[in-house]
């Protein structure tokens, strides 16, 4: 039995832990937060990720929490609707709030997976027999393999691969999200206002009882770094930057800004991608945003994490089983030890499967950015005209199907699980 340490208890980490326990491995998930994190904006499932949800037996549970969002309206500063998008453009084939998805995955794994909250990794020391891991609070422990599922600002990636700036590619935008009252009386829909370099608005959530406010804006692309000039740990400075950027804009923006000031789930970050030559080094690998963040503009972050977790666990299981069955020379016969070359073969196979899928998802983010955050009034007018004409365009179905095509840009193998599906009833 191989022992795994997974850093991160958001989506990719628990999804990987789910499959590892199904394959009869021992998984420990460490998370710096004191509990599974609630809140967050809506996340989408498209294409292959839905197949993975089916194989996990969790699709019904996710569908029970679906946002069931319709299309989104674009308005001008007077509040007049100037364009409308289809529901699939923003919500994919299935949409759920990130916090609800985290809860579903946690419920599906908590009985068979060790969760350690309020702690984080400080040092990784790899040798021939495994990885010695040191923690901020807990005593050092040894694991066969360590997986970083700790997001865009991954600690595991920094410790094992190098500084974040070596792999993070900023797209020249920032995003802020917070939960606010649904004072617009949005009914399973949303309204957005776009100005050159800015898109702001809100969409309803939790059966229209609340809303999620969104603030997207272009950063200073004249500088060497396209990331916003604010410390990502300085929440006060982040709130001020958002307010400074959107002050003076009409429509409902002043009220959204006032609600953003007091929101207790304020989120802010750069719109960035992670690009690596390899998703693994030795006995350490990365999954989800830690290894190949495509950015929120891709609409594929959750799909990448869910699919990546399935592929990584499946390839590890296939390689370890094959090595054991053939009694290969590289298999160590000590109880609990990891076949040295087996995990390397698994990581290489994982990389080969995921890399084309990652490339397609990252390209979609780059291509879509100029449509979601137009850079000029001329392109803004063109975008709005295109959306208004969309229902009458002969190729409209092809345009709607483009995100689905990206979502299916990966071929899923069937990996053999040893344990039955967990019982996770829909809520």
From TrEMBL:
<feature type="domain" description="FAD-binding">
    <location>
        <begin position="2"/>
        <end position="329"/>
    </location>
</feature>
<protein>
    <submittedName>
        <fullName>2-polyprenyl-6-methoxyphenol hydroxylase-like FAD-dependent oxidoreductase</fullName>
    </submittedName>
</protein>
<dbReference type="InterPro" id="IPR002938">
    <property type="entry name" value="FAD-bd"/>
</dbReference>
<dbReference type="InterPro" id="IPR036188">
    <property type="entry name" value="FAD/NAD-bd_sf"/>
</dbReference>
<dbReference type="InterPro" id="IPR051704">
    <property type="entry name" value="FAD_aromatic-hydroxylase"/>
</dbReference>
<dbReference type="Pfam" id="PF01494">
    <property type="entry name" value="FAD_binding_3"/>
</dbReference>
<dbReference type="GO" id="GO:0071949">
    <property type="term" value="F:FAD binding"/>
</dbReference>
């Amino acid at each position: 039995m191989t022992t795994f340490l997974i850093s991160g208890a958001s989506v990719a980490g628990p999804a990987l832990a789910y499959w590892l326990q199904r394959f009869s491995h021992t998984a420990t998930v460490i998370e710096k937060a004191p509990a599974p994190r609630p809140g967050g904006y809506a996340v989408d499932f498209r294409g292959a990720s839905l197949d993975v949800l089916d194989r996990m037996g969790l699709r019904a549970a996710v569908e029970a929490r679906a946002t069931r969002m319709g299309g989104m309206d674009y308005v001008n500063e007077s509040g007049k609707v100037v364009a409308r998008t289809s529901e699939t453009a923003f919500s994919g084939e299935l949409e759920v709030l990130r916090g609800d998805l985290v809860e579903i995955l946690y419920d599906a794994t908590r009985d068979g997976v060790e969760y350690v909250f309020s702690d984080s990794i400080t040092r990784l020391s790899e040798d021939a027999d495994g990885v010695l891991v040191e923690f901020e609070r807990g005593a050092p422990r040894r694991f066969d393999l360590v997986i970083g599922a700790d997001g865009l600002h991954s600690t595991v990636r920094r410790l094992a691969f190098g500084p974040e700036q070596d792999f993070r590619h900023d797209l020249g935008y920032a995003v802020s999200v917070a939960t606010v009252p649904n004072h617009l009386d949005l009914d399973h829909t949303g309204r957005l206002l776009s100005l050159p370099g800015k898109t702001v608005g809100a969409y309803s959530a939790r059966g229209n009882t609340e809303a999620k406010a969104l603030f997207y804006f272009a950063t200073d692309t004249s500088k060497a770094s396209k990331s916003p000039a604010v410390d990502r740990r300085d929440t006060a400075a982040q709130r001020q930057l958002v307010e400074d950027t959107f002050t003076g804009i009409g429509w409902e923006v002043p009220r959204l800004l006032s609600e953003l000031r007091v929101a207790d789930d304020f989120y802010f970050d750069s719109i960035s991608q992670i690009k690596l030559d390899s998703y693994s080094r030795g006995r350490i690998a990365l999954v989800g945003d830690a290894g190949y963040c495509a950015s929120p503009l891709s609409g594929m972050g959750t799909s990448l994490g869910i699919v990546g977790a399935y592929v990584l666990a499946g390839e590890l299981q296939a390689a370890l089983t094959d090595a054991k069955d053939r009694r290969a020379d590289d298999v160590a016969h000590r109880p609990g030890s990891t076949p040295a070359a087996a995990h390397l073969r698994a990581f290489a196979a994982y990389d080969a499967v995921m890399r084309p899928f990652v490339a397609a998802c990252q390209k979609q983010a780059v291509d879509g950015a100029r449509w979601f955050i137009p850079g000029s009034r001329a392109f803004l007018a063109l975008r709005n005209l295109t959306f208004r004409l969309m229902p009458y365009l002969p190729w409209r179905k092809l345009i709607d199907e483009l995100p689905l095509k990206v979502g299916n840009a990966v071929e899923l193998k069937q990996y053999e699980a040893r344990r039955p599906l967990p019982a996770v009833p829909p809520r």
